[in-house]
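User: Sequence in, structure out. Go.
Assistant: Echoing your sequence, followed by the structure tokens.
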Amino acid sequence: MDVRMGDVPTWIAMCGAIVAAWRANSIARIEEQRDKDSARRDRERQAVQVSAWVEGSTMQGSYGLEATCVVCVCNRSDQPVYAVDITVKDSVGTSQRHQLAVLPPRVTERFLISEQLRNNAILHVDIPRGQQRNASFAQDDARRLAQDLRVEVSFRDVSNNTWRRGLDGALVEAPETTAARPRRFWFTRAWGAGRTGS
């Protein structure tokens, strides 16, 4: 095969250019991912400090102390959150909803669960009704009731991002927020294109 020596340096230079471009793109991808992770941590800074849960409680009833539950939603951040929507669900699908226009900073709001949710939970966890219960038994009943209920909450942070904390406690950014945010192509940093896309 007729190979001219003058072609070898050209091929070597081309291979070197290809390897350099591949490495530049790999580094750009890594840095882009770092930027995304850093941006997400910044966005989550307030959201991670908002949570909701159900805790057992007792109240005075016809037969003395009776078990019930309280829904708690807490904002531990230094700024308010808005459009707070809390939903409590029991094991059979019954739900109860609470809404707050604003949850101030470092505040925990509490709501008593509805009678229907309470009655469903009492039946599900088999708590005796119509009996005198001392404080210790009533508190134990309340803990069992709380374990039968789940709560989810959605809210808007001060940067106008919407978040949801699901029944499992996991925090996710709402799709409408992420869809509205411009996205950069992975090669932006490598080539300096500065492009955005939807």
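User: And one key feature?
Assistant: The two ends are 51 Å apart (CA to CA).
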